[in-house]
Amino acid sequence: MYEPIRTKSVHTPADHADDFPHRSREEELDIQLAGHLAALLAVTDELGIGEAGIGEAGDRIAEQVARLRGAPPARHAGRTDAPASVLHRRAHALAGRALVVAASRADTAVAILAAERMDAHTAALAAPAASARLVGAH
Q: Which of 1, 68, 131, 138 could anchor a disulfide with 34, C-beta 3.0 to 4.6 Å?
C-alpha cells in the first residue's frame, strides 16, 4: 500500500565520513578562547581611549589572540558611546568567559591575564562609588 523509501535517511552514517575535516576539542577551545579574547580586546580598546593603563592590557590581550589564531587581531577602537561603567561590566563578563575556557584547556597565561582583567574592571567599577562616598562625607 505504501511505497518504500528509496533515499537514504539523514540518520544513516555517511559512506565517506572522513571526507570533511574534523576539529579536536583543543582546536575548538582555541577558537572559542580566541573569540572571547578578541571581544574583550575590542571593549578594552574602547575603554583605552579615556583611561590610562588600558593600552598595555590591550596589547597583552592582543598577544594572546595572535598566539591562538596564528595572526595578530585587527584592532579598531570603535566608539559605542556607552558609559564606562557599562563597558567595564561587559569587559568583566568577557574576561570571565575567557577565564572559564582558559581553565578548561589549562592555558595558565590566559587564565592569569583574564583574572587580572576581571580584577581591574571590578576595581574600576568600585572606584566611582568610593570617590562619591568621600565627596559626600565632607
A: 68
pLDDT in tens, the chain (138 residues): 667 766 666 666 655 556 667 888 888 999 999 999 999 999 988 887 656 567 788 889 999 999 999 998 888 767 778 888 999 999 999 999 999 999 999 999 999 999 999 999 999 899 865 444 433 343
Rounded CA separation 45/47 (Å): 5
Distance CA 60, CA 38 (A): 11
Other Cβ atoms less than 10 A from the Cβ of 138: the count is 4
User: What is the distance between the alpha carbons of residues 128 and 54, in angstroms, rounded to a whole number?
Assistant: 17
pTM of the predicted structure, to 2 decimals: 0.73
Using CA atoms, how far apart are residues 106 and 17, in angstroms rounded to an integer?
31
